[in-house]
Write a structure and sequence with these properties.
four-stranded mixed β-sheet; 20% strand; elongated; single chain; 9 helices; alpha+beta; 27% helix
């Protein structure tokens, strides 16, 4: 993957707020839902999400800046297609040794055996080795907001180069772990393999936020819609819906769409979608609106509650 800073269009000295702002802007621009399911937009959105997974996480960003991991989040020196390379970490070596490549790195298997058995030419008394379970492997995976809400399947590459299809549970939360039993490092002396622990990071959505199983968003409305009321369209996880804005609605008025939050799962009922109305003026000056405001003399004080 390209340099994550380059993908997000920010400098390496950018603040966390600047990085998050850049991600939100790009995610909104390239979100597949706004592009009619375009494959190129989907690919671009995934690239943006992967870049944010690196520099949007304080620990990963530090490790990337220090050269410990690459743009894909893998340790520097690790090549899933070629096993161990000099400069890799201990886990890289374990995979290389099993593939018979450790000798190329200057580490001889016989030296390892000598340490284990306390050998000196093999004459010492060897201890019987017990079966041991392989080590667990921890991997961080970033999924899109809607993918987390509705569930799906994601192909994940493991550190040894294998690719596995992982089921993303419906309603998965940020920070939740998924265990893949038996997909970790091989055991020793016929011991069982370890597991893979996937830690899920959920990318922010351009306009939706999650509150338990409920979803919240700000819905812009015109001055006329707020004063007179009327029908407006709002986006949801299952597609746009039409709702009625009551007449004389102020900014901050909250409307609820029942069952339009996180879908029902695991014995939990579906959440709701809460829409906070925001009265929004046009970006460009409106002559008629300006004339109306100049001639209008309201008989109320909007700041009366402030004391």
């Amino acid at each position: 993957m390209r340099d994550p800073y380059e993908v997000l269009g920010v400098s390496k000295t950018a603040s966390e707020a600047e990085i998050k702002k850049a991600f939100r802007s790009l995610a909104k621009k390239h979100h597949p839902d706004t592009k009619g399911g375009d494959a190129a937009a989907q690919k671009r959105f995934q690239e943006i999400s992967a870049a944010y997974d690196i520099v949007g996480d304080k620990e990963k960003r530090t490790r990337f800046d220090q050269g410990e991991i690459d743009a894909n989040g893998n340790p520097r020196g690790f090549d899933p297609g070629h096993g161990f390379q000099s400069g890799g970490d201990a886990r890289d070596f374990r995979f290389a040794w099993r593939n018979g490549e450790a000798g190329e790195a200057g580490i001889r298997p016989e030296d390892i055996f000598s340490e284990i058995f306390g050998g000196g030419g093999g004459g010492g008394r060897r201890r019987r080795r017990q079966a041991r379970k392989g080590e667990d492997i921890s991997i961080a995976v970033t999924v899109g907001f809607e993918e987390a809400a509705r569930g799906g399947t994601r192909r994940v590459m493991l550190p040894d180069g294998r690719e596995v299809d992982v089921r993303i549970p419906l309603g998965v939360r940020d920070g939740q772990q998924i265990r893949l039993k038996g997909q970790g490092s091989p055991g020793s002396e016929n011991g069982p393999p370890g597991d893979v622990l996937l830690t899920i990071s959920v990318a922010p959505h351009p306009w939706l936020t999650r509150d338990g199983n409920n979803l919240r968003m700000d819905l812009p409305v015109t001055l006329g819609e707020a004063v007179l009321g009327g029908k407006v369209t709002a986006p949801t996880l299952t597609g746009p819906v039409t709702l009625t804005v009551p007449a004389n609605s102020n900014s901050g008025t909250s409307l609820r769409l029942k069952g339009k939050g996180i879908p029902a799962h695991g014995g939990q009922v579906a959440g709701d979608l809460y829409l906070r109305l925001i009265v929004t003026l046009p970006d460009q000056p409106d002559t008629a609106l300006k004339k109306f405001a100049a001639e209008w003399h309201p008989d109320y004080d909007p700041r009366a509650r402030l004391g």
